[in-house]
Each structure stands twice: as C-alpha cells, then as structure tokens.
Specification:
The structure holds 2 protein chains of 2 kinds.
Chain A lengths: L1 H24 L18 H6 L58 H28 L23 H7 L10 E2 L5 E8 L8 E11 L14 H13 L14 H14 L3 E5 L2 H12 L5 E5 L4 H10 L2 E5 L4 H14 L11 E6 L11 H11 L2 E5 L14 H5 L8 E5 L9 E5 L1 H10 L1 H5 L5 H15 L1 E2 L6 H4 L8 E2 L11 H4 L2 H24 L11 E7 L1 H12 L5 E2 L1 E3 L9 E6 L6 H18 L11 H6 L1 H6 L5
Parallel strand pairs in A: 3-14, 5-6, 5-7, 7-8, 8-9, 11-12
Antiparallel strand pairs in A: 1-2, 2-3, 4-10, 9-10, 13-16, 15-16
Helix pairs in contact in A: 3-4, 5-14, 6-14, 7-8, 9-10, 14-17, 17-19, 18-19
Chain B lengths: L1 H27 L3 H14 L1 H19 L17 H10 L11 H8 L4 E2 L7 E2 L6 E2 L12 H14 L7 H5 L2 H14 L3 E5 L3 H11 L5 E5 L4 H10 L2 E5 L4 H18 L6 E6 L11 H11 L2 E6 L13 H5 L8 E5 H4 L5 E5 L1 H10 L1 H4 L6 H16 L2 H17 L5 E2 L8 E6 L34 H17 L2 E2 L1 E2 L15 E4 L6 H22 L1
Parallel strand pairs in B: 3-13, 5-6, 5-7, 7-8, 8-9
Antiparallel strand pairs in B: 1-2, 4-10, 9-10, 11-12, 12-15, 14-15
Classes of the chains: A alpha/beta, B alpha/beta.
Chain lengths: 638, 534
C-alpha cells in the first residue's frame, strides 16, 4: 500500500510541476499538440530523481500537461506520451504505388566541393604526417617498424582513421547511460588534444534520441517486458552457461524459438546469441564450395563475413536493381562454375529487407517473381525490418502481403525492434534442424542468456497479443492463423502479463505510432527541401550532407541545441565517398512533438549549412507541422 | 620523283609546324622540362628502357580500362549463348536442396541434447523431470545463479532496460561497458580491454583486425574452431606447428626466419596464435616458454584464454597468473566473459594501441550491437567475487583433483587434459589390440610440414566408433543422474579431425563428494558401455 501512496503523491507532484511550467512554455507548442500530450509517471524513482527540475526541453516531462482522463503508464523520457489517435498510421504496400522514388542528384557544385574537401583533407593529412614524422617521431612510433617488429598498423592503412575520422571523432563512441529510449543521457566528455584522448567532465545531458535502433520502443526499464525480465532474472539468473548442444539449452530457448517461428509464420526457427554472428556463423552451413551466393552490393558486413567463411563463390548485383539481378542470374546459370562450367550446386540470393544506410526496402515481389523462374534460394536479412514494418510488425513479407513461407530463409535480429540482443533464423523444419547441427552457433557459441530470451518472448507476445485459453483446448491453439495472437500456453507460465499485452493494444499502438512517425519525418524532410533516400514508410531516414565538414557541424549543432538531439552521422566506408549522410532512426516512443522538434532543428541547421538541395515542392515549416496528419495520409507526395 | 616531293612539301611543312606548336605548348606546361629531360636522359642511357616503359604504360592503361568484375564476358572461359539457349539451360538446371536432411544419427544426437527446465546450476532439473549433477555446463566458478549478481542485474534492468539498441560507435557504449572493460584490464593487469558481444565471434574478429594478407601467422595445429575461422578471414600466410609442442614451434619460427632471409622478403607483421587451455583436449600451453620464443623471434602473441580465463590461477586470472607472467607480455589476450564469468560476450585485453585499433577495425565489434548492460554488470560483479574469494578457485582445483583421482586409472579412459585444467577430456581407450586402437603418434623424428595443418604422424582412431561409444556413455550417465556432454565439433568443417571426447566441465559449486559421486557414475558408464562391446 505504501508504494501505491507514494506513487500517487509523486504523480500529483509531477503533474503540478508540469502544469506550472507549461504556463510559461505554451507559446512554443502548436495548437495541434495541446490535445496530444500529458504527464504521468509509473515510477516514483524517475519522478523524484530528476531534481533540480526544469522542463525547458520537454524531454523528461511533456510541455503540455495531461487532461484528467488521460492516464499513461510509461515514463515520458523512455516512451513518449501521445494520446492523439490521429497520430497513428498503418503502413502497407499499395500495389501499383510508387515503390522507390528516383534518387535525386545534388547540384554539381556540391559534388565538386565535396571532392575538393576530401582532396584538401588528404593533402593536409599527408603534410602533417610528413612534418610530424620529422619533428615528433615519438608520436609515430607505433606506425614505424622498430626493434625488429613490423608496425602493428601501417600509417597508410590507418591514414583515414588518423587524419580524417579523428577530426570528427567526438561524434562517435559517445558514452551514454540509462535507457536508450526516446531520450538518452549523454555522459559529457571533453578532449584536450583534439580527440586523441577524452576525459569525462562529470556532467550529464539528456538528449532526444533519434539514433538508437529502438523501432518499437521496447527499450524500457519499466512496463510489461521489464517486469517479465525481472521475474526471469529472479528465477533463472543471468547466464545459460554453455553452448546449445553442450548443456546450455534451457526450456526458455525452446519456448522462444517456437514463439519466434509462430511470429514469423514459418515452421521452425533457431536463435543465436549475437545478431552479427547469426549471419556469420549460419551462412557457412547453407552454402559451400561449388555454390554461388548472389549478394546485393549494399549488404551488411556480417553477410559478407559469413559468405567469405563459407568458401562459396560470390557475385554482386547493383543495389535493388532487378534487371541487374536477372542478367546476372542468366549469366551464372548458363555459364556454370568458373572454368569447369559444371552446374552450380545451388544459388543463394541474399538481400536485406530494409537497408539500414539507405532506408530502401528490397523489391521482394520482383525477387520472388525471379525466384520462380530461376529456382534460386532466397535469404532475406530482416535485421532492421522485422517488427518495424508491416501492419502486424512481421517485416517485409507482411508489408508486401507475401506469405513468409515463400522465402526460404528469413533472418532477423532482436537488437532493434525487440529491445533485446541476438538474432534468429526462420525457415522449414528440416533446414533449421540442419543449421542447428551444422551451423557454428550450436556447437561453439554460447547460448542466449535467460533475461534476453525473456525480453524476446515478452516483446514478441506483446506485438502479437495473447489469447487466453484453458489447457484443455491446446489443440485449438495450433489452429490460430498467422498472424494471429499467441496462445497463452506457448508462454512461460510464470511470466507476468500486462493487460495491454494480452489484448494486443500495446503492440498495435507501437506499430501504428512508428508507422506515423516514419512517414511523417520522411515526407516532412522532403517537403522542407532536403535530399533524403529511402521509402516513405522506412523508419530509417538518411538525410544527405555530402561535404565531410558538414557532418561534424551538423551533429554538434544538433547536440548543443536547447533541446539537445543526438544523431548518427555516417560516411565512407559505410557509404560511397561523396554521399555522407546523417541517419535518423525513428521509434514508436517518439511523439509528434518530438518529430516537430527534429524538423525545426533540421530546418534551421539546413539553412545554415545549405542542405536544402531537393527539387521537391517546398512547404514552410509551420504548415508542415500543422498539416502533419494530412501529409501522412496522402497517397503520393505532393 | 621530284614532283612527288613537291606535292608532299605542304604536308611536311604542316607536320613540322604542328610539331613546333606542340613542342612550344608542351614546354609551356609547368614541370614539362623535367619530364622531357627525364625521358631524354633515360633514353640515352638505355634505349631498351623506353620500349619497356611504353609497354608498361600501355599495360597500365589497359588494366585501368578493364572491367573489374570477375569472370567478365570477354574472359577466355566465357561461352556465348543466345537467349533461347540460356532459357533452356535455366529450365534444365535443378539445384540441390538448401539444407540436406539430417541423417538418422544426426537426428538422434540432436534429440538427445538435454534441456534444462528452470535455472542452470550445479544440480539443475531437466525437462524430463530428473534432477541431475551438472558436469556439462560452463559454470566453473559457480557464478550462475549467484544472488548478489541477480540482485545487481535487476537493479541494472530498472535503470538501463535490457538491450543497448545500437553498436558501440552509435550511442551503444554505456558507462557499464566502459566499467567492465576497465575491470577486466585491471583484473588482468593490462592497459585496456575491449568487449565483444559474443565470445565465439571475438577471436575470429581480433585476428583479421591485425593480420592481413602477406602477414605471417604461426599457429598451433590444435587451435579451436573460432581461431581457424579468424585465420581464414585474415588471408595471412599460415605456418603450423605441432599441437602444444614448443620445440616444433621453435623449428617453425626458425624456418620462417630462414626463408625470409633467403628470399630477402621484407619484414611483415608476425603472430603466434595459440590457446591457453586447449578447447580440443584440455592441454595447457607453456606460457613462459611461449613468451621467451616470441620475444626471441620478435613475434606478437595472440593467446586465446576462452577456457583458462576464470578457471585457473590463484584468483582465476588465467594462464598469466598461473605462470606468474605479466599479462603485458601477451600482446592480444582474448578471453570469454560467457565462460569465465558466467555472463555473456568476450573480450580482448592488451595495450591501448591494440585495443583502440580494434574499435575501428574489429569487424564484429563495429558492426554489432553492444552487449546488454545487465550482462556487463553481472560480469563486473563476477570479477569482484573472484577477486575477493580466492577460495572459489581452491575448491575448483580440489574438485578437479577429486575427479582425476577417480578417472585417472580407469583402463578404458585416456585423459589427455592437464591435471589443473577445469575442462577434463575423456577419450575412449579400447583395450583389445585386435581393434584399430588409438595409439600415441610414434615420432618418426622428422618434423611435420609447417605448410600443412595435418601433422606428419596424425593420431590414429576410429571416429565413428568412438563417437558412438561416447554418445552411449553420455546417455548412460544421464540415466544415472549425471549430465555430461560430448565435445561437439563440426566434423568436416574443422581443419583437422578432432578426436571425439567427453568433456567434463568441473564446477566449484558442487561439493567434493558430489564430484566424486559423479565421477564414479561416469566411470561406471565407461566400463559398462566399453565392456558391452567385448
């Protein structure tokens, strides 16, 4: 009882504070927002810890207090409060609709200045190396051979890191603390020697987090999933101790694998304790010498790693270019293996569902068309799309309305949408059993730990919804159609279930909020005149910056605003040299107000850095923010 | 004759004037004098060189213009087909199934894997309802299920949530990760360390981060699968030495040096790669000798302590503590947080240059999400416990001795493992000489070929027979209430044939009495199964 009382008092205090502040603050909010936001907090700690209290940025508490009938169970800093039901959307593929927009070219002077910038950077870098090696040889000691040892890394190999990346190193490896949810707490640091070393300044900054892979907002320290994980730690401890085939298998593994298979809509699934390793240790069990892997040129490093380990031949096709793929297929099947011209044992085409640097979806319907004709096997890496796409959160298959069993292997990770870690492979039972036996994961890699498994189970169940049944009707439970709810008998009996998880409203709300946020930011940025890549429904939004100098400036300006925003900047080698970009990762936990904050920041910084190179029709910022719902609901971009 | 000359006259003048303008224009270009002087003087010295240089120039242009994709259409192996023929070939082609169906043996082995219902620990309950003594799980120091660790884990959950939701470079580095890296470095006595989110993927990323094409790696013939994969990815030149034979290592190092001097090859990076306690048989490397050799021949040492970290030494610091060698002598010390500290992930400890290099170049560090905060804190707490309670390691060693004392003198068991290793491998020894019985390699005196991973005198054994016997023993022991496991290896994917073994993972969480009891069950199972064959 005492906790309930203290909770209530803390809530009322927070309400009072938020109300008081909002009086002075309400000038900044738009009329549309006043309907949408509110404040409560389910955790007394979070309310009381945040002294001294200030709400200038609206990060810890909404700028507009709640109405009396609005009750929110989440912590606003983790998962934003948004009651306005019109800020929801359900994204699905419109047949015949615009699949991918033609990529826009920047003006020539931008490209030219980008090349010149790199040229200048490289020249200055070499000059500094040349002088430095003569004036201060001690700083170059680790790059020279000495004492009979060859240098650990050559100055040539490390040139890019030392002379280009180091200049903007303060934008990477930022230490953080707390939940990587809607906001994130940065541990501020400072560098006395131009980013060679850092020291913590001891202060902390809470920033709006539009960088973490937290698509469905399951990165939470409170709520149904966290409660389930706490219970599992108390029951199971932290470790599984061993590999799956050697005494590390728990009942939780079997439950999680069955649940994931049901979620994806395949016969069976296996789980690996690391997302990267799911690709790098499973692909070698699928293909070997005499097989061919056809890989999209922008596939993730883990796929390349796995393919290299497998010993299979590799060919690449142009990113998402179906003509290129078909031409290549015709060539390789007719030619057979190099030199011997023997037919290939098998051909595996590997594509990603959602490309994390481009925001593009793979053209799955077209690939499946080709698959019918050319009989290759299809491997879809859904690391970023599972949970984040489709009306039911089942990834690209769901988005395109395709039966998941028409794809041979569906791979995905739990890091992104599920707030957990590790990955899965789903497919036919005999293929999955083969991978359990012959994949490196089963025999050599540690099994997934119980808390992570529980997070996977709880978040998946939350997306699916749960149908409560008696034990007698377990036969019926098998008949529940994909993508229906999960029968409660498939979950661990001890797991606490929140009511919103059971009726599926929690999962549906997350999916619909994410879809709204993704579409809104994608379209609004384009309407502001920015050059962006990707599909309108992609929760990953890359905004092109081009010039290397603009990357760091953009990130620093965003971080030092009144409402700090952290962003991810990506450049060569993750992208082509000229198309440096900033990448926003949206989340269901963001509110419309948060997106408006990002848009306002981008608008100001975009003017300052001359980033608005798009040829699309321009709308003023105020109009975009006021007509957000309309923009999202539009079939085609204006 | 003269008419033709007269007719050609304007042509000649035109050519001469063109040449004249070209020449003056050429000399207007800054720096052209230098080029002209260079060409002239090189031509004077050696006219042949001009021809050669022109050929080189043409070759370079040709290479640049050539398509860079492999097996291009103009290749000499390319066969031209018309569209109809291609369609026919496409129709004709039938691929093999994507995954071959499991054989009945593989299926039986997969089904026989025991599944623990509820928490793992020294005495877990299985899904069959049976409670067993656990000598299979890697819970060496009994940290699994530790109340303090669980308590901390819940606290962290309530502050950080579960996942880190991003790679370390992009807001995935949490203060708890930095703390654990610092804790590991302090615990071992190195300058720094770096965390990977899976132990298996650690060393296969560490090796290629440093060793590139053209670099030399001298590796043990018995290294574990993860190292083999790392060597494969690195594309370096690999030389092999006999398993745990430092004399052989020295010979290989000597031969590499000799070869380099003979061919006048430039100095490249050179590494020795080996394990602390070997995953395949539980032997322990002689670290002081290794360090002596690597210093003498100027190699860098990559030591995989996945099994030895957290299981050996006075407080579990691993091989460096056991032999009292400073950890700074090992250039890249790789260990497993999952095995040694009962959490998850792996680490590489070394100098800050070594560690920082991996933050950009360690593939599975850069491209993978950071490990969950909870696991990092659990590991930090594990280190704390090991530091403060040396008695854990003492009782672990006592349990190891207790098990050895039961199993050492059994006729049908060969134990290759070192007496201090916490993983004890058991090989079947078939008593009857009529069978193809495994024999220790008879040394023919000649060293093995360092270019080949196969030793000159490989151990002889009957893989299928031994595997079957061991599987029967595992199942027999399980029926008697002791969970043990075969060391599972991927036959055919491993570079060498690894001899089938039962791997006992000793834990300090069991009492000495329980260990003896369990060892006696294993002994009885061995005698029963091997005896039944006779």
């Amino acid at each position: 009882m005492s906790t309930a009382a203290s909770y209530l008092s803390a809530v009322s205090q927070a309400d009072a504070r938020a109300r008081k502040l909002s009086d002075t603050d309400s000038t900044t909010s738009t009329p549309a927002l006043s309907l949408s936001s509110s404040v409560t907090s389910s955790s007394t700690e979070t309310v009381l810890d945040d002294a001294p209290f200030e709400n200038l940025d609206g990060l810890s508490y909404p700028k507009v207090p709640p109405t009396s009938e609005q009750v929110f169970k989440t912590v606003h800093s983790e998962f934003g409060h948004c009651a306005n039901e019109s800020f929801r959307y359900t994204a699905r593929y419109q047949p015949g609709g615009q699949f991918a927009r033609p990529e826009q070219e920047p003006p020539h002077y931008v490209l030219l200045s980008t090349y010149l910038s790199y040229l200048l950077l490289i020249c200055v870098g070499h000059l500094r190396d040349f002088i430095g090696k003569r004036m201060r040889p001690s700083s170059y000691k680790h790059l020279m051979k000495q004492d009979g040892y060859m240098a650990l890394n050559s100055d040539f190999d490390s040139f890019y890191t030392r002379r280009l990346m180091l200049r903007i190193d303060d934008c990477f490896f930022q230490p953080v603390t707390g939940v990587p949810g809607r906001t994130i707490v940065l541990l501020d640091r400072s560098s006395p020697d131009y980013n060679i070393t850092y020291y913590p300044t001891g202060t902390r900054t809470r920033a709006l987090n539009i960088s973490s892979y937290n698509y469905l907002g399951f990165a939470q320290a409170t709520g149904g999933c966290a409660d389930a994980v706490e219970e599992s730690v108390r029951r199971y401890g932290v470790a599984a101790c061993g590999t799956r085939l050697e005494g590390g298998s728990l009942d939780l593994h079997l439950q999680a694998e069955a649940l994931v298979a049901r979620f994806i809509g395949t016969e069976d699934a296996l789980i690996s304790s690391m997302g990267f390793a799911t690709n790098s240790t499973i692909i070698p069990a699928l293909v070997s010498k005499g097989s061919l892997v056809i890989s999209d040129e922008l596939n993730h490093a883990s796929i390349r790693f796995g393919v290299r380990l497998s010993g299979a031949n590799v060919r690449m096709f142009k990113h998402n270019n179906m003509e290129s793929l078909e031409q290549l297929l015709r060539e390789v099947i007719s030619q057979g293996q190099p030199k011997t011209h023997r037919p290939w044992k098998k051909i595996l085409v590997i594509v990603e569902g959602l490309y994390s640097m481009e925001g593009n979806l793979c053209n799955l319907p077209a690939v499946l068309e080709l698959k019918k004709k050319y009989k290759f096997y299809l491997f879809v890496d859904e690391a970023h799309s599972i949970g984040a796409l489709g009306p039911h959160g089942r990834g690209v298959c769901d988005y395109f309305g395709i039966n998941p069993r028409s794809v041979d292997i569906l791979m995905g990770t739990f890091t992104k949408s599920f707030g957990a870690a590790g990955g899965y492979i789903a497919g036919n039972k005999n293929i999955i059993d083969r991978l359990r036996t012959s994949g490196h994961t089963g025999a050599y890699a540690e099994a997934m730990t119980p808390p992570v498994l529980t997070q996977v189970i709880a978040s998946t169940a939350s997306i699916m919804g749960i149908s409560i049944q008696d034990k007698n009707s377990s036969l019926q439970s098998q008949a529940v159609a994909y993508p229906g709810p999960v029968p409660s008998s498939a979950l661990p009996p001890w797991m606490p279930l929140a009511p919103t998880m059971i009726d599926g409203t929690d999962g549906a709300m997350r999916l619909r909020r994410l879809a709204f946020n993704a579409r809104y930011l994608n379209r609004a940025l384009r309407l502001l005149g920015f050059l962006t890549y990707g599909n309108d429904d992609s929760p990953v939004v890359p905004l092109l910056l081009f010039n290397p100098g603009k990357m760091a400036v953009f990130a620093r300006l965003m971080r030092t605003r009144a409402t700090p925003i952290v962003v991810v900047i990506v450049a060569y080698p993750a992208t082509p040299l000229v198309t440096s970009r900033v990448r926003f990762c949206l989340s269901a936990s963001h509110t419309k107000e948060d997106i408006d904050t990002v848009l306002t920041a981008c608008d100001e910084i975009g003017d300052l850095l001359d980033l608005k190179q798009g040829t699309c029709g321009r709308w003023p910022l105020e109009e975009i923010m006021a007509r957000a719902v309309e923009i999202v609901q539009m079939k085609e971009m204006p | 004759m003269s008419t033709t000359t007269a007719a050609l006259e304007p042509v000649f003048t035109f050519l001469a004037s063109t040449y004249g303008t070209l020449e003056t224009n050429f000399y207007k270009i800054p720096g052209s004098h230098v080029v002209a002087r260079y060409v002239k003087s090189s031509h004077q010295n050696d006219p042949g060189r001009t021809v050669l240089e022109i050929m080189l120039f043409i070759f370079a242009v040709r290479t640049l213009l050539q398509s860079r994709t492999r097996a291009d259409r103009s290749g000499k192996h390319f066969i031209k087909f018309d569209e109809k023929e291609i369609d026919e070939l496409v129709d004709e082609w039938t691929p093999e199934p994507l995954g071959a169906e499991l054989t009945s043996k593989e299926k039986a082995h997969l089904d026989a894997v025991p599944v623990i219902a509820g928490p793992t620990g020294p005495k877990p309950r299985l899904t069959t309802g049976k409670t067993v003594l656990n000598l299979a799980s890697y819970n060496f120091t009994g940290l699994a299920g530790n109340e303090t660790i669980n308590q901390k884990a819940v606290e962290v959950l309530r502050r950080y949530g579960l996942g880190s939701c991003g790679p370390p470079g992009f807001y995935g580095t949490q203060d708890v990760h930095i703390q654990l890296e610092k804790d590991i470095a302090d615990f071992l006595g190195t300058e720094a360390s770096i965390l990977y989110s899976q132990a298996f993927s650690t060393i296969s990323s560490v090796i290629p981060a440093f060793s590139k094409r053209g670099d030399i790696i001298v590796a043990d013939r018995g290294v574990n699968f993860a190292i083999q994969k790392g060597l494969q990815i690195s594309r370096s030149t690999i030389r092999w030495y006999d398993h745990n034979d430092l004399h052989s290592l020295e010979q290989v190092l000597e031969s590499v040096e000799k070869e380099r001097r003979k061919k006048g090859l430039p100095l490249t990076r050179r590494f020795i790669v080996t394990e602390g306690i070997f995953d395949c048989d539980g032997l322990i490397s002689d670290l002081p000798k290794l360090v002596e050799l690597k210093n003498k021949y100027k190699y860098r040492l990559i030591l995989d302590e996945s099994i030895s970290f957290g299981t050996i030494g006075r407080t579990g610091r691993g091989l460096t503590e056991l032999y009292n060698v400073p950890a700074t002598q090992v250039d890249m010390l790789v260990g497993s947080v999952a095995n040694g500290l009962a959490a998850g992930g792996g680490f590489c400890a070394g100098s800050s240059i070594v560690v920082n290099h991996q933050r950009i170049n360690g593939t599975s560090f850069v491209f993978s999400a950071a490990m969950p905060a909870m696991l990092a804190v659990a590991a930090s707490e594990g280190i704390n416990i090991l530091r403060n309670t040396p008695s854990i390691l003492t009782s672990l060693q006592e349990n190891i001795r207790a098990i050895h004392s039961v199993l050492d003198k059994v006729d049908c068991i060969t134990i290759p493992s070192h007496p201090a290793s916490a993983t004890i491998h058991l090989w079947v020894r078939l008593p009857s000489p009529t069978h193809l019985s495994p024999t220790a390699p008879v040394s023919s005196g000649k060293p093995s070929n360092p270019l080949s991973v196969i030793p000159r005198d490989p151990m002889q054994f009957d893989y299928d027979l031994e595997e079957k016997l061991l599987q029967d023993i595992v199942e027999e022991a399980l029926a008697q209430g002791v969970m043990i496991t075969r060391a599972k290896t991927l036959r055919g994917q491993e570079l060498t044939e690894v001899r089938p073994s039962i791997r006992i993972a000793v834990t300090s969480a069991l009492s000495k009495k329980d260990c003896e009891k369990a060892a006696n069950v294993v002994k009885a199972a061995f005698i029963k199964v091997v005896g039944r064959r006779r």
